[in-house]
Amino acid sequence: MQEGQNAVEAGAASDSQRSEAGEALARLQDIAVFAELPDEVLARIADKIAPYRAAEQTVLFRQGELPEFLYILLSGQVVLDARAADGVETIIEILTPVEVFQLAASLTNAPYLTSARILKEAQLLTIPAALLRQMIEAQPPLALTMLASMSRHYRMLLRQVKDLKLRSAAQRLGCFILGLGRQQGFPQRIKLPFDKQFLAARLGTTPENLSRAFATLRSHGVATSGSHVVVNDPMRLAAFSVPDEAG
């Protein structure tokens, strides 16, 4: 009788594992970075994926640690920050869904250059970094996919460096608002994804300079309303901010 019960429990556990793997596979297929991979490659990755729900202020990893996982942010927000030798901290990036992050560290097994903590309760997927490195040696399609993802991330970083060197804080803010509008379907009233302290850090400026940037944008058709901005004249804002073409 006990053997029969154990067999039923084992079968139920096996069914549950297959269901979780199937759900992980479906999620991967919906993420642009993985969508074009062959099913057999996706299935192997999905088999090792672990879903992870994290509360605000949870630390995912710390600067200087060796990478254990590649992270995929499905919901919530993650802040990447860095600390100098004298203890000064700065925010490097604020991540929103859907974002695959720490790919370069995972593939090279190099220490994290930033720390990561949860800014807003988040749902993530984690993929063992060692598994990725092992699979890339044997799976050229995966290597090409990872290379394409790193290339897109490089372009994003280069665009941010250009912003810091070539645009004023008000222009950077204008470009950011226009980008949000594009993501949100070009509504007149655009929701800011985080508070103005984090927005200032994201744009590489101070809260005081951010306030001055918002004041500058008022003469270019932008008004603020709590956690929203109202863009009355997108063309006028674009003429002032001169955003890069998407891509």
Which radius of gyration do the C-alpha atoms yield? 21 Å
CATH topology of the largest domain: Jelly Rolls
Query: Terminal Cα separation, in Å?
Result: 63 Å
Mean pLDDT: 87
State the CATH superfamily name of the largest domain: Jelly Rolls
Any guess at the CATH architecture of the largest domain? Sandwich
SSE order, one letter for each helix or strand: HHEEEEEHEHHHEHHEEH
Broad shape: globular
Percent in strands: 15-25%
Structure description:
This protein is of the alpha+beta class and 247 residues long. The protein has helices at 2-29, 39-48, 103-108, 129-138, 140-166, 169-183, 196-202, 207-218, 234-241; strands at 50-54, 59-61, 69-83, 89-95, 99-101, 115-128, 189-191, 222-225, 228-231. The model is unreliable at 7-13 (pLDDT under 50). The protein has two domains: 49-163, Sandwich (Jelly Rolls), CATH 2.60.120.10; 167-241, Winged helix-like DNA-binding domain superfamily/Winged helix DNA-binding domain (Arc Repressor Mutant, subunit A, Orthogonal Bundle). It is 50% helix and 23% strand. Strand 8 (222-225) and strand 9 (228-231) form a beta hairpin.
